Amino acid sequence: MKKSFLTRIIVAGIATIAFSGFTIAQQPGVRRTELQRFDLSAPGREVIQSRIDFDPGTSFGKHSHPGEEIIYVLEGILEYEIEGKPPVTLKAGEVLFVPAGVVHAARNVGTTRGSELATYVVQKGKPLLVMTK
Question: What is the average pLDDT score of the chain?
Answer without folding.
Answer: 86
